[in-house]
């Protein structure tokens, strides 16, 4: 196959926007790619098209990704397209390769220093040197702060001011964190080791300070592609600019609406400002969603349409390309155990109906929420795997807490209420029921132990449970044993952050209540908007079937809470239903909101007028003009006889909906938003007669004779 025919084969099957991205001229190109729009296909096709047309050589291309999995997928696709020699690597892998290669030259013949695989051990020693006793969770939080600072190009002496400017919630006083940061750097140098940020800095230093290294690197790599550009941090951007050396053959791909890692130092500003920083840049928007049904896409659009702030400037409105599917479901439960049991029951039904367990995911805001779903799935006999975290009872803090609670059984008073006894027992591992500590890892540890207190409250409310702390510790051991059963394939349990980049046929988004999503720790507008984007990412993980749910209380009889502010105002028609096969006397589920879809394109409808019409405002109307005029004439006569404004009988929007949808039965009539039982009783038979072809004179004379 010749070069020309190979290039034509690359273009085959691309949509118009993808084709524009692929054939864009050399120079700065920004591909704004929404979820499921085929960004990997577009970017690999661009590389292949340019290589096969002779515009570039594969060996001169460096494609940078954020995960090894994404890099491997890119290499695989390029091989299929017939292009060899392209280097597709993560930032760290690319930097490591270069630093190792140039180390003898840069370090006067010495080999590259040993690379730390984790900062925690050295950070723990650094904290001790400055008088801080940091447990593992605190050390992880300090390590995260140091990583943020180094990724943001902040030195120890600059940390206090930079943290204040960035509104960082620090695990200790900023000055103390700066002391640990400084001690950490000194310890590393003394031990002759470097961390991952040092390696990136070394790659930058090698190019910026050594002209011979810069010449060799830039001669090797002349064309650059960066995936997930919204997740680049200042250090990575500095390395990218060093590689470029003032050249502009750069293609970046990103989606500002999927910016969810700002706490690590990632910033979407480079993506947002790309056209301004690269004059004459080609900007292409990929908006055709091939992953999700129009119903899921419509809901995602509705959620992100309310976004504010910098990222919202590049917001994309997606257009679903798949056939219509089931409506997203919104479920409301009385408490979290009921919610978890209902999710487990539906997972079991999906698996029984033929959906592979690996194609189902339950997504939540924090890892501490996983316990209820681990338990419910175990009891329902549904296998599961935990993505990006340890199972609840395998977490070190939970194992330590169970040992402490077993020890507490020897001295616990029978008169002490169980939750209070558990709180007292957890004091042995340093847990207190006041506000959680700052820092992500420390807070996650606190929340995991708080989950044990919540379990104690639920256990105490169970009249059939063995009373007391001894019975509770035995129950915890039973649950732990259940969850230790190894599984090869199962339903995925994951936090929303861990779910980024993945997709499933069926997705459960759970715990969508205020205080959880958005978390209570989101205090600024920017933090709240990142929480909104988390929900958007969660919704766009679903290919076909989507469930959204929240519980009005954490535990039975607990304090009431409100649904997440990010949930659209869905149509709340439709009756409730028992959830999760609970007891016959208990109705665990509240009224069941339904999402209304466009009857023409299948997109989810959120606006009241659109739901009434049953179609998007941009979809073509199929109104029966003659029927509409008869309905208007009839409404005018009825309003005159009743001496009320015409809209009191029916609004213009309702008449339009009637003339478009032409209901033939009472069930179809009440399906139109705004026509309730009262209107059906007053006008239902008359409207159905008009739709069936009766004249206004006929229905009015019949009404007169009946009266």
TrEMBL record:
Gene3D superfamilies: 1.10.10.160, HRDC domain (1.10.150.80), P-loop containing nucleotide triphosphate hydrolases (3.40.50.300), PCRA, domain 4 (1.10.486.10). It holds the Pfam family HRDC. Residues 556-590 are annotated as: Disordered. Its EC number is 5.6.2.4. Residues 294-544 form the UvrD-like helicase C-terminal domain. It catalyses: Couples ATP hydrolysis with the unwinding of duplex DNA by translocating in the 3'-5' direction; ATP + H2O = ADP + phosphate + H(+). It is an enzyme of class 5 (isomerase). InterPro entries: DExx_box_DNA_helicase_dom_sf, DNA_helicase_UvrD-like_C, DNA_helicase_UvrD/REP, HRDC-like_sf, HRDC_dom, HRDC_dom_sf, P-loop_NTPase, UvrD-like_ATP-bd. One of its GO terms (molecular function) is helicase activity. ATP binds at residues 33-40. Residues 12-293 form the UvrD-like helicase ATP-binding domain. The keyword Heme does not apply. Keywords: ATP-binding, Helicase, Hydrolase, Isomerase, Nucleotide-binding. Residues 621-701 form the HRDC domain. It comes from the Bacteria. Belongs to the helicase family. UvrD subfamily. This is DNA 3'-5' helicase. It comes from Micromonospora chalcea.
